[in-house]
């Protein structure tokens, strides 16, 4: 059964439509390791074992589209992005290919997420046939990206406002994998200038 599951297609869904109100400038376009953050994260996802990648755009759409130019991915627009995260999640899920067995939801404000981490999460999900979702943990703290089975998509379509899938995961607690990883990337995001500056400082200290 696990062999069949490993052949199922899991698509990446990168949510990059937000207004970045706490940051004060589009997080999608922050310069990370010499290129826009959205370009970096999309590239890490494209190098992974994901079956494909869809990026949801909204705020700063023209500039974000330019940053993704020539990458082999699908871009969709969420005209309701100002109504919150759930609108981008739903818009993206509705446009995934019909053969999608699950979606990995990636966030544009997590610059430390790597191809290696993405593949680690994919492997854990694919080898647990009974799971309907996977949530990574770092030192007991839940993080992202998460993987969500296609069987849950209809319930996710009912979400509203600036909420994610947490409430739905609670309904299926016994079938949600909580995978402890030795990687703080899953709980490292940059919502504010202070968080961004701290991350950039750590980056500069680690760069020879």
Question: Could you give a short description of this structure?
Answer:
The protein is α/β, with parallel strands linked by helices and 208 residues long.
Keywords:
alpha/beta, 208 residues, 8-stranded mixed β-sheet, 8 helices, 10 strands
What does this 3D model show about the protein?
This protein is an alpha/beta fold and about 210 residues long. Helices cover about 35% and strands about 20% of the residues. The protein contains eight helices and ten strands. The protein has helices at about 1-5, 35-45, 60-65, 85-95, 115-125, 155, 165-170, 195-205, and strands spanning about 10-15, 30, 35, 55, 75, 100-105, 135-140, 140, 145-150, 175-180. The strands form two sheets. Strands 1, 4, 5, 6, 7, 8, 9 and 10 form an eight-stranded mixed beta sheet that branches. It has a two-stranded antiparallel ribbon with strand order 2-3. Strand 4 (about 55), helix 3 (about 60-65) and strand 5 (about 75) form a beta-alpha-beta unit. It starts with a helix and ends with a helix.
């Amino acid at each position: 059964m696990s062999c069949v599951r490993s052949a199922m297609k899991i698509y990446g869904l990168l949510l990059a439509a937000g207004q970045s109100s706490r940051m004060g400038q589009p997080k999608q376009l922050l310069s990370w390791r010499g290129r826009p953050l959205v370009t970096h994260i999309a590239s890490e996802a494209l190098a992974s074992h994901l079956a494909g990648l869809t990026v949801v755009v909204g705020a700063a759409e023209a500039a974000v589209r330019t940053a993704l130019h020539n990458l082999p991915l699908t871009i969709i627009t969420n005209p309701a992005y100002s109504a919150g995260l759930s609108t981008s999640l739903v818009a993206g899920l509705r446009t995934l290919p019909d053969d999608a067995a699950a979606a990995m939801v990636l966030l544009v404000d997590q610059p430390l997420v790597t191809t290696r981490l993405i593949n680690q999460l994919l492997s854990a999900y694919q080898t647990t046939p009974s799971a309907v979702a996977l949530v990574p943990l770092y030192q007991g703290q839940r993080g992202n990206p998460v993987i969500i089975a296609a069987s849950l998509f209809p319930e996710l379509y009912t979400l509203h406002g600036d909420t994610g899938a947490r409430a739905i995961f609670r309904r299926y607690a016994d079938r949600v994998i909580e995978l402890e990883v030795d990687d703080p990337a899953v709980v490292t995001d940059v919502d504010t200038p202070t968080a961004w500056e701290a991350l950039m400082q750590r980056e500069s200290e680690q760069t020879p």
